[in-house]
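Pasting as-is:
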Amino acid sequence: MKGYMGIDIGSISTKGVIIDSSNQIIAKEYIWTKGNPIEAVKELLKKLKTQVQDQDIEIVGIGTTGSARKLIGAMLNASVIKNEITAHAIGTLSLHPDVRTIFEIGGQDSKIILIEDGIVVDYAMNTLCAAGTGAFLSSQAERLGVSVYDFGNIALTSKNPAKIAARCTVFAESDLVHKLQIGYRKEDIIAGLCKSVVSNYLNNVGKGKKIREPIIFQGGVSKNIGVQKAFEEEAGTSVMVDENGHLMGALGVAVLSKKKPITKQFHFSITDDHFETKGIECHKCPNHCEIICVRKNNQLIDFWGNRCSNGSLSK
């Protein structure tokens, strides 16, 4: 059986899927990046391998997306390397072809994607502030002494959500501490945090955008039912959450890889290889470009960063 692998490598989490020719997911995994994308992908590949080891499967397409997509693309000799907007849109449309608005909140950034007739017509991203992201909610959960996985269910028990300043992480944390000190109930503060995430998102990422139904909410934060319900209250309509919503980027590049097969045979034994990256400064012209070199078992396999041919290296 032919399989197609997609990997979404972000600063917080690393996601991977393997699909068949009908876009059915036959293996999937979600792990933490822990500041080391190469080791995270190695761990991811080992976990994916255990899920397909009993199947006669050949990986014929590989796609990467996310903040480290170029690095991991070089590591895996990927045939498709795409930005997150394209990857999330394709992944979502493969499961929900009628979707028109995508809300996505990840670990450190968030985005909105507007679609008409299966084509992305507008988008926006928030990458300057962590307010309203998964990392923000995780830090507040730790402050409150609860698991972030319980946030949503706790929020739904609140009858009087606290108003939490949403425009900035620093202000939100200061407001949260103040609310705790004056005696607000924990569930009311948690519900207030969920609402503040939505308020921050719509007032910044979604500002000026015409949000149309059907709407789907994805990314790691979509697993928080408290945030989902807050979105529905603000939008005045239902907001879908797919069970694989946190994997849409990986699914998208896996689907795209079907159109462009890999040129070298893929083996899961790549996890035994040694990869390293190193930045060098080129002094061959006034640009002084920083060139990123990727080596596999001490052999140069890719490089980028040079703005002219003077910085070109031999593989």
